[in-house]
Design goal:
Elements lengths: L8 H4 L6 E8 L5 H11 L3 E2 L11 E4 L2 E4 L10 E6 L3 H11 L9 E5 L2 E5 L5 E5 L11 E10 L3 H12 L3 E6 L2 E8 L3 E8 L9 E6 L3 H9 L3 E6 L2 E8 L6 E11 L14 H4 L2 E4 L2 E4 L4
Parallel strand pairs: 1-4, 5-8, 9-12, 13-16
Antiparallel strand pairs: 1-13, 2-3, 3-4, 5-9, 6-7, 7-8, 10-11, 11-12, 14-15, 15-16, 17-18
Helix pairs in contact: 2-3
């Protein structure tokens, strides 16, 4: 008779669930000029030079991840995006440089304990950190997306990802309340933090890659949750539900891609923001450019 071996939690932590990678966050913007000033000049990210180079959309590279920014009525993610960047001091200097040209928008930033909190011109929020043990090998990238969800939703959300999607998830308590944390690939997470105030959903979405494409699709389809049938190696759903009752808990569109999708782990061009985008004083003015 086989005996059940107790596995060290540190060993279990090495497991990778069904979601192999969070690739992008998609929010609409209404001005590509302002988006260029904020995302490229201020934040230090890189516009993808190969795809979506017109005026209808812009794709912004952040390590292995992206922001997709279609030109349309602006959208605001219900929560914030975690970012890792090489230097908070350099980021602060860049944000100071762009601030005058972003006056009159919702742009804001502040130093906080261990990070810089940034708000985009449209109200999207970011928390930016330097590399460290909490973020694995990241030097620049998107380690997590944090969503604000209603009180009492965390347990059901964790159950949904565990049972329907096949992604390890658990509930952790903090000073704000309970949060469901979903493991994504090597170093990423989706965090669903319970809070008293949750804004209305405006249609923004995230894109993830999954190893098992068919089983979550079958379960989602049986529950009536699939909003776009499989095509081009992907499908979509919006509602996260309690697995037992099918009660709707939270809405965030998931663009679910298989590992056979042609864009999976496509090499992304990233500028060396530590080398080329450090602010410097020239002729009494602060400019962004080569430090050489």
């Amino acid at each position: 008779m086989a005996t059940q071996t107790k596995i060290d939690p540190a060993v279990v932590a090495e497991d990778v669930g069904n979601i192999a990678m969070l690739e992008h966050v998609n929010v609409q913007i209404d001005d590509q000029g302002i988006a260029t000033l904020f995302y490229l000049v201020g934040m230090g990210f890189t516009r993808d030079p190969h795809m979506m180079v017109g005026l209808e959309n812009m794709w912004i590279n952040v390590g292995e991840q992206q922001f997709h920014l279609p030109t349309d009525t602006p959208q605001v993610l219900r929560g914030h995006v975690g970012i890792v960047t090489p230097s908070l001091d350099a980021l602060a200097s860049r944000l100071e440089t762009v601030a005058p040209r972003l006056s009159g928008t919702k742009f804001a930033w502040s130093r906080e304990d261990g990070c810089i909190a940034v708000t985009s011109p449209w109200g999207n929020r970011f928390r930016v950190y330097e590399p460290g043990p909490d973020f694995g090998p990241l030097r620049i990238g998107m380690p997590y997306v944090h969503f604000d969800v209603p009180r009492g939703a965390a347990e059901g959300i964790a159950g949904f990802y565990n049972e329907v999607i096949g992604a390890p998830a658990n509930v952790k308590g903090n000073k704000t309340g309970d949060a469901a944390e979903v493991s994504v690939g090597q170093y990423q997470r989706l965090i669903f933090q319970e809070t008293d105030e949750v804004a209305d959903y405006d249609g923004h979405h995230i894109a993830v890659y999954v190893a098992n494409f068919s089983e979550p699709y079958a379960d989602l389809s049986e529950r009536g949750l699939v909003t776009e049938e499989p095509r081009n190696h992907q499908y979509r759903f919006v509602d996260i539900v309690e697995p037992g009752s099918n009660k709707q808990l939270f809405s965030i569109e998931h663009e679910v891609r298989s590992l056979k999708h042609p864009l999976y782990r496509r090499p992304l061009v990233n500028r060396s923001i530590g080398e080329f985008l450090e602010p410097r004083r020239v002729g009494g003015q602060t400019i962004l450019g080569s430090v050489g």
